[in-house]
Amino acid sequence: MRELKQLRQTTCYPFLLHVFKDFQDQRIDEKTLTSVLSLITTYLIRRWICNVSTNSLNTLFAYLYARVFKVAQNKEKYYEAINKYLFSQKGKNEIPADEVVKYALKHSNLYQNQELCRILLLDVENGDSKEKLATQNLTIEHIMP
């Protein structure tokens, strides 16, 4: 949630309310919740890196839960169903392909969006490490070197 808050991507909150309700009702476990949060964060970050317009996200996230789980069996494969739905989107809701993201990382001026830079660079720095870099007092210039 920290990354979503840093990105100020509140458009996904209607969808996440349903996901957190399922967690509260013990329909999904913490691992599934974490995986869904990571998927949504990745979806938004990839679109942001590639400068994809966000004007369609309100509609996508408002109806995402209902569309994915209109088939009751999808709740048995909760994360997989959401993942499959998001990666099957075309047009304005499409997730950018790896090649497009790589190109954007190399050629776009990502530095203008310091929150995005911060998230990306901290992920590179910390990764899955048990020892996390304390970042509260760091600026982007501290991280880049």
Short characterization:
This protein is an all-alpha fold and 145 residues long.
Features:
145 residues, 8 helices, mainly alpha, globular, single chain
Describe this structure in words.
The chain is mostly helical. The protein is 60% helix and 0% strand. The chain contains eight helices and no strands. The mean pLDDT is 81.
Structural class: mainly alpha
**Distance linking N and C termini:** 26 Å
Q: Which of globular, elongated, flat, extended, rod-shaped describes the shape?
A: globular
For the residues shown, what is the average pLDDT? 81
Strand content: under 5%
Order of helices and strands: HHHHHHHH
In total, the number of strands is 0
Helical content (DSSP H or I, runs of 4+): 55-70%
Radius of gyration based on Cα positions: 16 Å
Helical stretch count?
A: 8
Uncertain residue ranges: none
**Largest sheet descriptor:** none
Present the secondary structure layout.
Elements: H1 2-7, H2 13-24, H3 30-49, H4 57-68, H5 78-87, H6 98-107, H7 114-126, H8 140-143
Helix pairs in contact: 2-3, 2-4, 3-5
